[in-house]
Fold:
Amino acid sequence: MTGVLTVAAAGCGSSGGPRGGGDSAPSSQPPSGTVVRPEPHVGFDYQIGGPYPPAPGVGAVSRDRTVKPAPGLYNVCYVNAFQAQPDATEWWQSNHPDLLLRHASGAVVMDKDWGEALLDVSTPAKRERLAVIVGEWIAGCAAGGFQAVEADNLDSYERSQGLLTAEDDLAFARLLVTRAHAAGLAIGQKNAVGLVERGRSLGFDFAVAEECGQYEECGPYARAFDDRVFVIEYQAAGFHAACEAWGDRLSIVLRDEDVLPAGRPGHVRRTC
Structure:
């Protein structure tokens, strides 16, 4: 049985290695210091709302950086790299107020859908300072036993009310890619379908795509990342569309919008 891991030197381009089955189990870990990419079509679960024992057939799981990885699986560490978690805004205000993106009035720019303050990646100096902070989180993911990191909110510029550009976010992403590879981690581009080719060029190893089936966007991710794409759908229609078009190639899961742990009321998890 083909393993779900593909080993490559840090910073190298994507290889077209052997494809794993959807229910493959992970192979043995590579020597220290190498970057391990997820294999296409590995069984996947998205657990950033809280960890729980993965179901049979799951070979890869994404969990928040504050919890432990799942033993024996390919683990992706969730890091909110471009925005502040809602419960962390006060910490940023107290410790690094100038690294929060602000309007001319001084008010913090917010992602209103998620209650998250945007981080200010508008200048090289601020990007370097933020890379130190987020880089420590990434190093913590590596030390904790994760094999990869997903850097959320690459598309924060779209919510910046014109204060950030795609170039700003990509410049910061380049620093994060360097940090992740130096720590021996693969790094995934999270969303931002319009930036997939540029993201792949600057060094992202795979993609984490929310609702690409719902919005008919899975193709660009699949082409850019050689089918190394974790797809999370939150609506039944999007899930069925993703499974019909990409179920034999990509890692697809239907989750509830709150990504609740198993056993909690409202928990949903289905695969193709």
In short: Residues 5 and 232 are 20 Å apart (CA to CA). The radius of gyration is 18 Å. The mean pLDDT is 89. The first strand starts at residue 5 and ends at 8.
